[in-house]
Prior knowledge:
The chain is α/β, with parallel strands linked by helices. The chain has 2 domains: 2-65; 78-280, 3-Layer(aba) Sandwich (Rossmann fold), CATH 3.40.50. The protein is 40% helix and 21% strand. The protein has 11 helices and 11 strands. It has helices spanning 2-12, 18-33, 37-42, 50-63, 69-73, 94-106, 123-131, 144-156, 200-203, 220-232, 248-257; strands spanning 75-78, 81-84, 113-117, 136-141, 162-165, 180-185, 190-191, 212-213, 233-242, 261-267, 273-280. Strand 3 (113-117), helix 7 and strand 4 form a beta-alpha-beta unit. Helix 1 runs parallel beside helix 4 (50-63), helix 2 packs antiparallel against helix 4 (50-63) and helix 6 (94-106) packs parallel to helix 7. The longest helix is centred in the first third of the chain and has 16 residues, at 18-33. The model has no long low-confidence stretch (mean pLDDT 96).
Amino acid sequence: MKAGIASIRKELTGIYSAEETESLIFLIFGKVKGYSRTRILLARDEILSSEEIDEINQIVARLKLHEPIQYILGETEFYGLPFYAVPGVLIPRPETEELVQWIVLENKLTKPTILDIGTGSGCIAVSLRKNIPDSTVLACDISSVCLDTTRRNAELNSTDVSILEYNILTNSPETDFPDLDVIVSNPPYIRETEKSLMQKNVLDYEPNLALFVTDDDPLVFYKRIADFALAHLKNSGRLYFEINEAFGKECTDVLQKKGFSDITVKKDIHGKERMIRSAFFR
């Protein structure tokens, strides 16, 4: 394995940072050998088979084209749970784990009904269902590949999540939603002008539909989801968003104008304003 590790480092030099490369090495050998990080460290003197070397070379070739490792391996981890990672579906982010953690810690209800709007991989919906006992969780999206991936991820984690096609911007197809205790969404929020700041592995491979909004109306999803929440939240129900770090004040203004209160903007582990929570009292 030593030679294989050295080869990976050499091939990825100048493309990924040293820290990223070391992380990729553990992921690659975890996939190829099925080893834990500890076993990888202890097994460096093992000889790789020709089949294993070929598999590693194929993975590295794709990494050199900036393809995300999650898509290459077909899997990722989120909130301590396994998830399928599929092209056409946004890869779950660590900051979204913090959003899930916030909801889990704040929940005081015994049987909350929760809706995840724009569910993508289903990472939020599945994690909430797994960590809030007796919750009823619904997940909606407009993408058939996202809906199928959410279904697979719910099955993978032995959770029952109600999955439905729904376009929040057009309110279609017409759907009867139950009264909701919590609505959560990680909607598209990156402006087109911010594309130049993004890495190739995101721009070239991840779905633009899940990432970008127009510069002239960057809060379109927040406005529409807030209106939806006014119609479907129970009294004192809560609305949680992941947000663009540049729009904490603007998101707060939107929610205040629509009648929400108890509004809190929360910083992520890096000190960026990435989450907002509000409540609606009838």
